[in-house]
Request: fold
Amino acid sequence: ETGVTQSPTHLIKTRGQQVTLRCSSQSGHNTVSWYQQALGQGPQFIFQYYREEENGRGNFPPRFSGLQFPNYSSELNVNALELDDSALYLCASSLVGGAETQYFGPGTRLLVL
Amino acid sequence: RKEVEQDPGPFNVPEGATVAFNCTYSNSASQSFFWYRQDCRKEPKLLMSVYSSGNEDGRFTAQLNRASQYISLLIRDSKLSDSATYLCVVNRGTGNQFYFGTGTSLTVIP
Reply:
């Protein structure tokens, strides 16, 4: 086990709602990255947080936002949910930002109806 | 063009076989390279980093060809437990973004 935890494990929402997903990084890791993995696809980078600041962002709209807390845990918020937001959301932690190896949590499965 | 391209497979091989996966990346400035393994409905797990000199970990050998922007993974003496999806991952070193391929599915058959 990597020591990265995520909650909740599963979630069902309806279109237009908002959702908050949570991640606790591995002990000693100060960087958290979030990914979206649609069925049959590889993970797509959403953004990364390092020392409570956004430290890189992928091609996702502003309704995807995040936070990192002083204990390095992180939240992913998605507003105005769309059907295509249904996916596995993965959090990965690493020792520092950049190209360091990332360790993934078990993910949150989100279904938008 | 996608940042990372992989043959999605599926690859169905008998136990004991040798199987090779290939991956190409589009950005010549990419600096770090990895293979991750993902079991069905689980998170990706690091299999190995890939170095320019090539590296081996037991039955697994990874190679990088920077000139051709090509990464490979060789699995020797396949085991049933090797059945999974293998993800090729590239980091440019700027923007901290990891780019994943779509994954290559492997099933090892008894």
User: Anything to note?
Assistant: The longest strand of chain A covers residues 87-94. The mean pLDDT of chain A is 92. Chain A is about 0% helix and 50% strand. Chain A touches chain B through 27 residues (CB under 8 Å).
